[in-house]
Design brief:
The protein is α/β, with parallel strands linked by helices and about 300 residues long. Helices cover about 55% and strands about 15% of the residues. Helix 1 runs parallel beside helix 6 and helix 8 packs across helix 12. The model has no long low-confidence stretch (mean pLDDT about 95). Bound molecules: nicotinamide-adenine-dinucleotide. The site of nicotinamide-adenine-dinucleotide has 25 residues, from helix 4, strand 6, helix 6 and helix 11.
Amino acid sequence: MSRIAFLGLGHMGLPMAVNLVGAGHDVHGFDLVPSAIEAAKAAGIPIAESAVDAVADVGVVITMFPAGKHVIDAYQGGLLAAAKPGTLFIESSTIAVDEAQTAHALAVDAGHRSVDAPVSGGVVGAENGTLAFMVGGSSEDFDAALPLLEAMGKRIVHCGGPGLGQAAKVCNNMILAVSQIAVAEAFVLGERLGLEHQVLFDVAANASGQCWALTTNCPVPGSVPTSPANRDYQPGFAGALMAKDLGLALQAIEGTGTDARMGMLAQQIYAAFAAGDGAGRDFSGIITDIRDGNV
Ligand code: NAD
């Protein structure tokens, strides 16, 4: 059993913390927002007076914050100083690769252990304990984090050194964004050529066009009954989150001087989607904008 401080008890953090309690760990937490604190208390997670108080006497600190600046500010604002030397910091927010590397260096300089462990799988995966974790850090720190990650997820991959968990996440989501746009464009083109949706689906799903964006997240209703297209594009994976992740991809593309024009175009397309009515819709709803000529 580990004694764990879980900081950031929002949509993702609270169900993750609940799964750690279910696996027999001694978990307490903290959040800045009163409604999150109340929801955590109702779910049986004891709440500390502050984030600094929460980390003072634990072996593991897990953070699940909105963005990188929250992580760095919290680390520098007293968390690292308040934790016992050798505390394992598991940083699970989705943040930029360079921010993850900065957070790791700050933690190690303060005498702690650290892994970046961003997730995919969304709120449903967090609730069901079926998240995928992409982990960056040393083998020793990965091994130490593994039993805790297994309590919250199903697929745990050690991606390499510090920051490479975030790198894997950003690269995967860039593939996803580009392929979702490509599938949507193909359906709209097929419509204009007189192809039935189901016919195109049957051909592409069994040919070289096969991909998750088609066979799980199909952007037209009917062919995959569980895809968001069948419920007016209720997420799923919201456009705002895709736009955020592509912003991090763009940062990485520019930082490395990579020629990634498809990724950069996808970033522009989803930034506009999220700035319009797409923020709260599933990102496969991009097909509506393509059909309407609004991309
Ligand atoms: P959220 O906004 O619901 O929760 C984040 C929580 O962190 C908030 O309650 C906020 O008050 C709290 N917080 C911020 N700074 C804090 C601090 N210093 N101390 C304590 N609490 C603090 O966000 P979420 O949907 O739970 O997402 C969390 C992270 O997971 C994000 O980085 C997001 O990109 C990533 N993510 C989300 C999803 C999803 O489907 N929601 C999927 C994969 C990854």
